[in-house]
TrEMBL record:
Annotated GO CC locations: cytoplasm
Gene transcribed to yield this protein: lysZ
Official protein name in the record: Putative [LysW]-aminoadipate/[LysW]-glutamate kinase
Domain of life (superkingdom): Archaea
Natural source organism: Natronorubrum sulfidifaciens JCM 14089
Enzyme Commission number(s) from the entry: 2.7.2.17, 2.7.2.19
Pathway: Amino-acid biosynthesis; L-lysine biosynthesis via AAA pathway; L-lysine from L-alpha-aminoadipate (Thermus route): step 2/5; Amino-acid biosynthesis; L-arginine biosynthesis
Residues that, per the record, bind substrate: 65, 173
Any single GO BP term: L-arginine biosynthetic process via ornithine
Primary location: cytoplasm
Keyword Electron transport attached: no
Boundaries of every Aspartate/glutamate/uridylate kinase domain copy: 1-253
GO molecular function: acetylglutamate kinase activity; ATP binding; N2-acetyl-L-aminoadipate kinase activity
């Protein structure tokens, strides 16, 4: 069984424990694909360059980044550049023969570019143009399986390969949780989403209200209703992963001892395929 792990990019997330856990799993013969976020690092780099990150709200109320051309240049520099290289370096020091890949390598992650997005500003719906983002539509699972079969551990980063209307390609931004979800679905793997909280809480301010698991549609509705802020996208990604064929999804604490192993043992919020209605469409 393969495990896909996504390490969040929040400032409060320390990847050290997760990387040591990856090394333990690989030593035990497990296949692991590591993915990572990095929005915080991108924002910090933009600010160092004297530029402000731009976030927009969709008509559905989801807040996300607007990626203009300049921001896309910074993404290319930070995500597959510094962050991915740092993780590969750390894994090599843990004894893991890691290989860094971006979604553009070998058409690993591919989808259509969205050059314009619908946003809500001052209570009005508007079209904002010049975006460099996309929704992943295909995963080159053969590439990942080839890398894994060779004894290597892939470390995957956005950007992804965006198809233009003229048939060409442009590197575009995509949500890292949803990228991990697409990979987990394609590999029929377990997905572990590591973040700075221990799971999905019914009361976002009270860790004691953590939802342990969801194995029925009714239970999954409770999870979706409880998700707020950044957790909304993680639950959306979990749903897409399960619809795509993932074995399970766990939202768990990146800073726990042995965070991946403990998540797979049920320490986070575990979502099972039975939590989805048959034929349910991704939101």
């Amino acid at each position: 069984m393969t495990t896909v792990v996504k390490i969040g990019g929040a400032r409060a997330v320390d990847p050290e424990g997760a990387l040591a856990d990856v090394a333990s799993l690989v030593e035990d013969g497990e296949d692991v694909v590591l993915t990572h976020g990095g929005s915080t690092a991108v924002d910090e780099t933009l600010e160092e360059l004297g530029e402000e990150p731009t976030y927009v709200e969709t008509p559905g109320g989801v807040v996300g980044r607007f990626t203009d051309e300049r921001t896309m240049d910074v993404f290319k520099m930070v995500m597959p550049g510094k962050l991915n290289t740092d993780l590969v370096e750390s894994l090599q020091n843990e004894g893991v023969d890691a290989v860094g890949l971006s979604g553009t390598d070998g058409k690993l992650l591919e989808g259509k570019r969205k050059s314009a997005v619908r946003v809500k500003e001052d209570g009005k719906k508007k079209i904002k143009r010049g975006d460099h983002s996309g929704k992943i539509e295909s995963v080159n699972a053969d590439l990942l399986e080839t890398v894994l079969a060779g004894g290597y551990t892939p470390v995957v980063s956005v950007p992804v390969l965006g198809k233009e209307k003229d048939g060409g390609y442009t590197a575009v931004n995509a949500d890292a949780d949803r990228a991990a979800a697409a990979i987990a679905g394609a590999l029929e793997a377990d997905l572990v989403l590591l973040t700075d909280v221990s799971g999905v809480y019914e009361d976002p301010d009270d860790e004691s209200t953590k939802i342990e698991s969801a194995a029925t549609p009714e239970a999954f509705e409770t999870v979706k209703d409880a998700a707020e802020g950044f957790m909304t996208k993680k639950v959306m990604a979990a749903e897409e992963a399960l619809e795509g064929g993932a074995s399970s999804v766990v939202v768990a604490d990146a800073n726990a001892d042995e965070p991946i192993s403990s998540a797979l043992a049920g320490e986070g919020t575990t979502l099972e395929p039975g939590a989805l209605d048959a034929g349910e469409a991704a939101q």
